[in-house]
Amino acid sequence: MIKRSIVGLLVVLLVGSLLLGPRAAMADDAGRTPNVIVIFIDDMGYADIGPFGCKDYPTPNIDRMAKEGRVFTDFQVAQAVCSASRAALMTGCYSNRVSILGALGPQVNYGISDEEVTIAQICKQKNYATAAFGKWHLGHHPKFLPVNHGFDEYFGLPYSNDMWPFDYDHNRVTKGFKSNYPTLPLIENDHVADPDITPEKQPMLTTWYTEHAVSFIDRNKDKPFFLYLPHSMVHVPLFVSDKFKGKSGAGLFGDVMMEVDWSVGQVLDAVRRNGLEKNTLVIFTADNGPWLNFGNHAGKTGGLREGKGTMFEGGSRNATIMWQPGTVPAGTKCDTMAMTIDILPTVAHLIGAKLPDHKIDGLNIWPLITGESDKSPHEAYFMYYGQKLEAVRTERWKLHLPHDYRHYIMDKVGHDGHPGPYGSGHIDFALYDMDNDVNETTDVKDQHPDVVAHLKELADEMRKDLGDAGKPGPGIRKHGVLEPGDKKLEW
């Protein structure tokens, strides 16, 4: 009887583990589910930090994070542009599904829909404290702001720091396209805290965001929390505080990156100081690649093709680190492809929360984060830009579909905050072997017609859901719209 009972118990445990899927992180000694911090850098290049090859300036805090955590070498964004990228991160959906594309400016009267579910709202199921400090860019009117989408606190800019009435030399303008912009507001929760963030104030943005983040961690050390820290830097115009001005020896861009690294160190130090490191998952990544035509005020791709605004790897692939000592294996590397759409379902799995009732596109990648598996849960990822399906990625292969694209003319880039001109490019069907040609230089479609045929089939299936340029699919949901009677953000 005793042997039978033991066997029966083992069977129950085995079946239960299979049903539950991969092991989530253990709760801390107080039974608390893990804290989650997402640090999101704006326009950072793949090679702009030490763990990904940067030698122009030091990034000691990010270097330490990588040594204590896990580097993801093939981590993608859904679209390589500000608002679309953030919409995908926040909702776990391709940007097209939630109808947030491009970079929303101060003139638009739409934003993230009330029907969408953000990571913060996932965390609210488990009574997490939630905060966002930095650039939001999913709509600036109150109904679209973080505090109305699951966040308890918000402090930051509603959109990019170049959406203001100042020229490239930081002089206030009265004519030209930038004269149509209002002054740049700093928002706290759902009201304007400062109506005019000028060139004299922008140097404090990284410091202000960091101070708010550290305070939030300190204030919530005894309860589970989700912290979203989307920095305005290193988007142009570049600004740095006096703490790091001229310190890098690599110009203003290096100074700004050193301050971003300082911010990461401040956040991790706050986690350690409060004894939370073993129960806090920290994700460091970026919204897209560098804005290359700004020359010495832009980052580096490390040889990846093109940059921001394209779905070549220089635009879509981002340097990413996962950190949770004791759970995420230290000093390790994951070469398996993953995407920001996977963060929401992974967090839901981690804290035992329910996924949204509506369709999302991301999948749980916790086994990749812990090193339990190197197999992607996706057969393929679909690389849209705007409404156009531009490429299909599998673990080894990337098929570009015919499309026009922004081309960076590297011998005509700008200097000291002034942009150089864009070129234009066109690509027909082209297949790249990402195991051997990450820089997308050699088209091998003629050698692998079976692979091309399969990826075209996958593209056709996706078009049945999300459509393609000029032909929206039935899976697209409407963005939120400012309705008559809705409160407007005024300053």
Question: In words, what does this structure look like?
Answer:
24% of the residues lie in helices and 19% in strands. It has 491 residues and is an alpha/beta fold. The protein has helices at 2-20, 60-68, 82-91, 119-124, 205-219, 251-273, 313-316, 343-351, 366-370, 449-466; strands spanning 35-41, 70-76, 110-111, 129-133, 153-156, 186-188, 191-194, 225-230, 280-286, 317-323, 332-334, 338-339, 381-385, 388-393, 397-400, 403-408, 422-427, 430-433, 467-468, 471-472, 480-481. A hairpin with a 2-residue loop joins strand 13 and strand 14 (388-393).
Layout: helices, strands, pairs:
Blueprint: H1 2-20, E1 35-41, H2 60-68, E2 70-76, H3 82-91, E3 110-111, H4 119-124, E4 129-133, E5 153-156, E6 186-188, E7 191-194, H5 205-219, E8 225-230, H6 251-273, E9 280-286, H7 313-316, E10 317-323, E11 332-334, E12 338-339, H8 343-351, H9 366-370, E13 381-385, E14 388-393, E15 397-400, E16 403-408, E17 422-427, E18 430-433, H10 449-466, E19 467-468, E20 471-472, E21 480-481
Parallel strand pairs: 1-8, 1-9, 2-11, 2-12, 4-5, 4-8
Antiparallel strand pairs: 2-10, 3-21, 5-6, 6-7, 9-10, 13-14, 14-15, 15-18, 16-17, 19-20
Mean pLDDT: 95
Q: Whole-Å distance between the termini?
A: 76 Å
Could you give a short account of the major beta sheet?
A: 11 strands, mixed
- Backbone CA Rg: 22 Å
Query: What is the number of helices?
Result: 10
Low-confidence stretches: 1-23
Count of individual beta strands: 21
What is the global morphology? Answer: globular
Strand content: 15-25%
| Structural class based on helices, strands and sheet pairing | alpha/beta
Helix content: 10-25%
